[in-house]
Fold this sequence. Notes:
Largest sheet: 5 strands, mixed
Mean pLDDT: 91
Number of helices: 3
CATH class: Alpha Beta
Distance between the termini: 22 Å
Number of strands: 5
Shape: globular
Strand content: 25-35%
CATH architecture: 2-Layer Sandwich
Low-confidence stretches: none
Radius of gyration: 13 Å
Order of helices and strands: EHHEEEEH
Helix content: 25-40%
CATH topology: YaeB-like fold
Amino acid sequence: MKIFWTKEALFRLQEIEDYISRDNPEAAAEFVDKLISTAELLNKNHKIGRVVPELSFENIREIIHKNYRIVYLINKNSIEILTVFEGHQLLKKEEILKSKN
């Protein structure tokens, strides 16, 4: 399956990198690369993630890397990465809606 990153997800990755870069730019780039490679695992098995508890829709799932949640939508022929955020936060439905625009 082809993986697409929404504008919202890409924006969130940049925010994460910017935040970590304040202390360690090299670690920031490596961490974001790891988030991306974790999402790429969905090519092999798009159901490796769990259903997002806040939504309970079978086709909106998440995988976890360290303390970050990578939320994605399973479409017929593709996967859309909707957002990425710290795991202690709850998913805001507005982020999902924003990512679809």
